[in-house]
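About this split. The held-out portion is used to measure sequence recovery: a designer receives only the structure tokens and must propose an amino acid at every position. Recovery is the fraction of positions where the proposal matches the reference. Here is one held-out target exactly as it appears in the evaluation file.
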């Protein structure tokens, strides 16, 4: 599934006009080009390399991510896309649940696609697995476990309910993006828990 998502993103970006690579992604401070460089860095990451990178970044995730972007962002977006193509079939990963690779590819795929007006029909299994992982992963590791003690998520397009508290309902993909802090999708959601989710996004 991870490889399929990488291939789909490569296909979507293959004919992207040069100036659009500079558009702001859904990641604060990162352009579309930056997010792709981050995905290259993710694909190259090994368990040992992750630990080494964290030590060099003094255990600051944001610093480590910035360094990865700087390292993998080539002189031109086309070169970065070619780098992504070359690493798209890799199976290496940092320590942690394998489904975290799905979260990275889907969420960052949307970070790129939505500002560009591109749409992808993600396999439900991939989105649901990603959302379930976020629900059991602490915030300190990029998840939403604590948030889901204050709000209940109900997918309108899948048999999935997670969390406790006031309900938020909407498409599973929008729920996933919301619990990973993407405020741009909050208008897709309904229910009394949206205000709580918005405060945590």
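Reference sequence for scoring:
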């Amino acid at each position: 599934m991870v490889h399929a998502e990488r291939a789909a993103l490569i296909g979507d970006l293959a004919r992207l006009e040069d100036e659009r690579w500079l558009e702001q992604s859904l990641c604060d401070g990162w352009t579309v080009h930056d997010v792709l460089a981050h995905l290259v860095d993710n694909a190259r990451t090994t368990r040992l390399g992750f630990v080494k990178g964290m030590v060099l970044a003094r255990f600051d995730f944001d610093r480590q991510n910035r360094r990865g972007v700087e390292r993998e962002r080539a002189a031109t977006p086309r070169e970065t896309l070619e780098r992504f193509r070359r690493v798209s079939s890799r199976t290496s990963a940092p320590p942690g649940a394998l489904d975290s690779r799905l979260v990275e590819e889907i969420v960052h795929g949307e970070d790129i696609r939505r500002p560009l007006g591109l749409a992808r029909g993600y396999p439900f299994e991939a989105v649901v697995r990603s959302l379930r992982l976020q629900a059991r992963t602490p915030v300190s590791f990029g998840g939403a476990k604590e948030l889901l003690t204050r709000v209940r998520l109900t997918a309108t397009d899948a048999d999935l309910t997670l969390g406790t508290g006031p309900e938020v309902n909407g498409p599973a993909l929008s729920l996933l993006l919301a619990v990973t802090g993407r405020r741009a999708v909050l208008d897709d959601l309904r229910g009394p828990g949206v205000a709580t989710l918005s405060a945590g996004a």
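Annotator remark: The chain is about 50% helix and 5% strand.
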